[in-house]
Amino acid sequence: MSQQGEDVVRAVYRLAPLGGDDVASFTARALALARESTLEVPVGVASASIEGGLLGRVIGVEPDADGAATARIDYPAAVLDGSLPQLLNVLHGNVSLLPGVRLVDATLPESVLEAFAGPRFGIGGIRDRLDAHDRPLVAVALKPVGLQTSELAELAAAFARAGVDVIKDDHGVTDQAPSRFSDRVGAVAKAVAEANAATGGRTAYYVNVTGPVDTMGERVEQAAEVGCGGVLVAPGLVGLDTMRALADAEPALPVMAHPSRGDVGPGRDSGVSPEVWYGLLYRLAGADAVVYVNAGGRFAWSIDTCQGLNRRLRAPLGRLRASFPVPAGGVSASDAPSWFERYGTDTLLLIGGSLLAQDDVEGAARRLVEQAHAAGSTPAPS
Amino acid sequence: MSQQGEDVVRAVYRLAPLGGDDVASFTARALALARESTLEVPVGVASASIEGGLLGRVIGVEPDADGAATARIDYPAAVLDGSLPQLLNVLHGNVSLLPGVRLVDATLPESVLEAFAGPRFGIGGIRDRLDAHDRPLVAVALKPVGLQTSELAELAAAFARAGVDVIKDDHGVTDQAPSRFSDRVGAVAKAVAEANAATGGRTAYYVNVTGPVDTMGERVEQAAEVGCGGVLVAPGLVGLDTMRALADAEPALPVMAHPSRGDVGPGRDSGVSPEVWYGLLYRLAGADAVVYVNAGGRFAWSIDTCQGLNRRLRAPLGRLRASFPVPAGGVSASDAPSWFERYGTDTLLLIGGSLLAQDDVEGAARRLVEQAHAAGSTPAPS
Questions:
Q1: Which residue is closest to B146 within chain A, CA to CA?
Q2: Which of A181, A186, B62, B105 is the most exposed place for a label (fewest CB within 10 A)?
Q3: Are B102 and B214 in a shared domain?
Q4: Which of B162, B123, B175 is nearest to B333 (CA)?
Q5: Which of B37, B143, B213 to mutate to test the interface with A (most CBs of A within 10 A)?
Q6: Which strands form A324-328's sheet, in the order they lie side by side?
Q7: Do residue B95 and residue B196 come from a single domain?
Q8: Which of B81, B214, B244 has its CB closest to that of A245?
Q9: How far apart are CA B324 and CA B316, in angstroms?
């Protein structure tokens, strides 16, 4: 809340040094940023009431120890319109094109949160559907691209027999000739259902519905018709609001969000922090589970970044449900117990390629499942 | 084309130095990148036919003078599925999350281009609709956010009387309380039509349809119904493929694309070059005119970057029409003649805030129009 008592979005930016920096130059950059994100006209063009009511306000500019500065800016909620595209535009629209500006934190008031339904299932809803409580969950991936639909269905059946919680398509398995979406969705769902019937299990198949945006609604319908337990969406490829629209629409299926294509890399001078992008905005856009690239894998993210992201996905956020953190990306199955311990029970661990590299994929998946059951309930680190 | 004669997408990445770099380490990074973008499984998991047919191929890795390296990778077209999201995923999906990788060039074979209709109007179609040939065009912006619909309509009438070619909404003027989309679209279109009727002019109003993705089709329909000359879309906020779907659908209106929210800043170690993002991918996604942040304005882009972008928007690209380059972003009206000379006739120059800062906005707009007419036909620099 600002001094006037009206609602504001509080954004925090890291301003990288650009040479010859001092507090005055950082402050000038913060003022320009606040104007760029809102009025986008030179001083003197807008009326006093518009300048007073809609211009972003620089609340503080503090030099950091590393030569950068932290700028805090309050955006009046009245500059928003209740939509995710306009929220993105204000937080990180034109300013994404400025040199040395990184969005590192954002806090939304209740009045802004109210416009978003958020996850329809969330951690609790996914657990109920899988009948998997009081333990971490495990997911595996169907890949690589190039496998025939029948081969993917066989692989899925093996994973289901092993009792994994979620089988997801690789995000790169879309609608290529060896496995068209319309063939795969039914064939794999059937293979998983048959394995579940044999074992009494509840394994869910999350089919990848990422594709041309004007086909995605239909793909979700097909997924629901054949009994898929959820869908995979890569909002970096189709737009965050495309995921939001699917999550809000019927039929209702859990949405797992894939991190492909983000300008989020830790340590960069530009872009958005993973905690804000995946931890806040993916959740706001309705992701029930959020895949991210885990520390220790192929992507060089720190444990602190991952823990920060986990916290944001689980922390109270208006009336929005919590989303499952899904660490992935070069995570080895043999390390699963240590990740369960580190990240706590409300974690859905995704093991991809390292499982497929085993001679006995089904046996390896079964050991992973046993590890998840053995982990039981572990409190999340604070 | 690869040695085997099959179609490939050729991508060029800049690999930033990460410390301790030599040709071997750059090559290892290029090989990992090619695998990440396609199969995303460890060596040995995929069959020989999948590795041979779908894995990205490192064609060359060359050290650059600045300590970075340039990696050329060919992606077999068979890894694509004819959709823009999957093309994005292969060019810059998971690899966008790797440290120090920047996509700096991409070349698409005919078989890939064929899946995309591209701009429906392009430079020629926009000129025909405006009856504006053999000269550069000028556009202006309605802003700031906070103005009432009636005030925006008055401003638009003044611009239309002055004879500007295109009046666009500011991309931050969306659906806020002072000017709801459904009110503004008709009121401003009417004001412009009345001014055109009085002057005999052909000024077009491009209304901003950026919003919740499940409302955008309806907004385009409303725009067509009330006689808008085109629409403004910010694909960075709603997804590139959302623009593509609108551009492919009925009703047919020219699409002007806004650059808000891109990970494109020149000089960055990550992201995508503006030439590829705005020059290739926006055009592929159907933008008839592409707004970008001009050199000499608020955004510190170089002339070389802007000229490279202009070239990509206008150069032959399969059967796709050329898109109008729209330099903007802190361009001063008084500098218009020099930009016409520098960028050539096939340029749509957008003057925003600097025009609004004049005491006599209509007079200033009229001088801008006179400058465009005086510029006449100037060949584009090669």
A1: A50
A2: B62
A3: no
A4: B162
A5: B213
A6: A324-328, A289-293, A255-257, A230-233, A204-208, A166-169, A137-142, A348-351
A7: no
A8: B214
A9: 13
User: What are A117-157's pLDDT values in tens digits?
Assistant: 999 999 999 999 999 999 999 999 999 999 999 999 999 99
Cα A218 to Cα A215: distance, rounded to the nearest angstrom: 5
ipTM of the complex: 0.96
Same domain, B52 and B158: no
| Nearest beta carbon to residue B171 from set A89, A212, A263 | A89
* A268 near B CB under 8 A: yes
Domain count along chain A: 2
The residue assigned the tokens 């306009």 is A86
Are A268 and A301 spatial neighbours (Cβ–Cβ below 8 Å)?
no
B163 and B213 together in one domain: yes
**Percent of chain A whose predicted confidence (pLDDT) is above 90:** 89
**Cβ pair B98:A212 closer than 8 A:** no
Report the residue of chain A nearest B354, measured CA to CA: A42
**By the CB < 8 Å criterion, does A305 face chain B?**
no
Query: Is the Cβ pair A53, B146 closer than 8 Å?
Result: yes
Q: Do A101 and A141 lie in a common domain? A: no
Kindly list the residues from chain B whose CB atom is less than 8 angstroms away from the CB atom of residue A49: 146
Distance from CA of B319 to the nearest CA of A (A): 21
pTM, entire model: 0.97
> Is the peptide bond preceding residue B259 cis, with omega within 30 degrees of 0?
no
Residue A67 lies in a domain: yes
How many angstroms separate the CA atoms of A350 and A370, rounded?
Answer: 15
- Domain final residue, candidates A113, A141, A157: A113
Answer whether residue B13 is part of any domain: yes
Would you place residue B145 in the very low, low, confident or very high pLDDT band (cuts 50, 70, 90)?
Answer: very high
* B3 belongs to a structural domain: no
Question: Is A321 in contact with A125 (CB distance < 8 Å)?
Answer: yes
A45 CB neighbours in chain B (<8 A) are: 144, 353, 356-357
Q: Which of A280, A235, A260 lies closest to A104, judged by CA? A: A280
CATH number of the domain at B50, please.
3.30.70.150
For residue A376, the model assigns a pLDDT of 84
Inform me whether the C-beta atom of residue B353 falls under 8 Å from chain A C-beta atoms: yes
Q: Domain check: are B81 and B150 in the same one?
A: no
Compute the Cα dihedral for B171, B172, B177, B179 and give only its sign: negative
For residue A299, what is the DSSP state? Answer: S
Q: Which of A87, A113, A139 is the last residue of a domain?
A: A113
**CATH number (domain holding residue A364):** 3.20.20.110
Residues B77 and B207 in one domain: no
Per the structure, the complete domain to which residue A365 belongs is given by 122-374
Sign of CA dihedral A362, A366, A368, A369: positive
CA distance A71 to chain B (A): 19
Whether A270 and B267 lie within 8 Å, measured CB to CB? no
The verdict on a CB contact (< 8 Å) between B261 and A96 is yes
Pairwise CB contact (< 8 Å): A262 & B97: yes
Inter-chain CB proximity B144 and A352 less than 8 Å:
no
Question: For strand A324-328 and strand A289-293, is the pairing parallel, antiparallel, or unpaired?
Answer: parallel
Do both A65 and A172 map to the same domain?
no
- Domain-located, residue B382: no
Residues 199-218 of B with CB under 8 A from A: 210-214
Taking a C-beta distance cutoff of 8 angstroms, is the pair B352, B143 a contact? yes
